[in-house]
User: Fold this.
Amino acid sequence: MAEKLFGTDGIRGTVNKGAIRPDMFLRFGEALGYTLRKAGDRPVVVIGRDTRASGLILQSAIVSGLLNAGADVALVDVLPTPALGWLTVQNGAAAGLMITASHNPFHDNGVKVFGPAGYKLSGAQQDEIEAIIQDPGFDCTVPAERFGRVVDAEFDVSSYADFAVRTAGPDVSLSGLKVVIDAANGAGVSAAEPVFRSLGAEVIMLADVPDGVNINTKCGALHPEGLSEVVRANSANVGIAFDGDADRILVVDENGEVADGDQIMGAIAIDAKAQGRLAGDTVVATIMSNLGLEGALSREGIKLERTKVGDRYVVERLREGGFSIGGEQSGHVVLADHVTTGDAIIAAIAVLSIMVREGKKASEVLSVFEPVPQLLENVRYQSDDPLSAETVKARIESVSENLGDSGRVVVRKSGTEPLIRVMVEAYEREYAERAVNEIIAEILKADGQ
Assistant:
C-alpha cells in the first residue's frame, strides 16, 4: 500500500525521504490542477512559502504540475500561512498553497492547502487529490495550447499587513509599549515588524535573519527561553513568539513568564464576552486544552467545546457553530471574525489591544487560570501501530479509571511525525508523572524497544 501523504495539516515530511520528493510535488500540482479545473476552466492558485532552503525546490515542482494541468499560478513569495489564506480570498483564487513544515526543523517541508474561501481543505477533498497522486495512470494534463501561466497577484504580503493593522480598530494605539518579537527565522519576518510599528509600538526583533536552515532553531514558539531573557533585559512590556510559518503564537509577559495558547484564548474570549462580541458565548479548543481553561471560562458564562487535535478541526467547528474564537494550547489562535486559520500576528494584536484598553500589564491579562498539572511526553515509534496492542489499551484504560473525574488521559499519534503523544492531566502532579511513565513503558514494550 502506498504511503499516505496527507496528515492533520497538509503534506509534510523530511525532504528527499519517502514520498517528500520533487517528483511527488509535481504530481501533487497536477492532481490539484485537475480537480480545480473541474470547477472552472482556468483556475488560479496562489502560492507562498516560508524561509526553508527547500521551499523554492518544492515550489518549482508544484508550479510545473499546476501549469501542466492547465492552472494559472500567482507567486507571493515569503509570508505567514494566515496571510496566504487571506490572500487566496482577496485574489479570487481557486486555491492557495503554503509551502511550509510549520514548527518542524529546516530539513522538513510540505504544503498546506486552502480552498477559495480561505479555509483548509476538508478530509474528503484531500482524499480526492491523494487518490489521483497515487494513481500513476491518471492523466491530469492538458494540450499545450491550454497550459497554465504564471500571473501577477493583485494583493500581496503588504496588503495583508495593512489588513492586520486594521483589525486593531481605529482607536487602538500601541504607543508606549515596548514589544519584543521572535520571528523564528521564519515567514513572520515578512510582516511582523511593519505591523507593530504601524500601530505605534517600539519593536525589538529577534530571530529575524533567516538563512534557509535556521528556521525554528533554538528560537520562536518552540524555544521561548531566549525571548524571555531579552524581554527582561530590555524591560519590555511583552514578548511575542511565532513558529516558522507564523500561525502559532506564545506570549511572554514583562516578567519573562510564558503564556500558552490556552491563556491567550482565555484572555481574548473573556474580553470579547465582556464587550458582547463572543459569538454563542462559546470557545472551541481541542482535547489537549487544560481543564483550568474550561473552569475559568465556565465562571464567566462561557462554554468550552473540544475537538480532535488540529486547528483544521477547530475551524470546522467554529464554522458549524457560528462561533468566533478557538484554538489550541500549542498556540494556534483562530479569531474567526477576521481570519480563517490560526494567526499569530492578529492574535498578538488582540492581546496587546486588551493591555492598552484596560491599562493592564501582560501578566495581568494573561493570568486567566491556574493550570491543572499536565504532563505531555512524545514517544517515537518504529512499528506500524503500538497503540493497537491490547497491553497498551489496558494500561491506558486502567490509568483513566483511576483518575476518574479528577483528571484526563489523552494518548494519540501525531499527524505529522512518527510520534505518539502521551498526555496526563491530574490535580496531583506526582500521579500524572507516574501515569505518563507507565503508559510510555507499555508503548515502548509493544514497539519492541
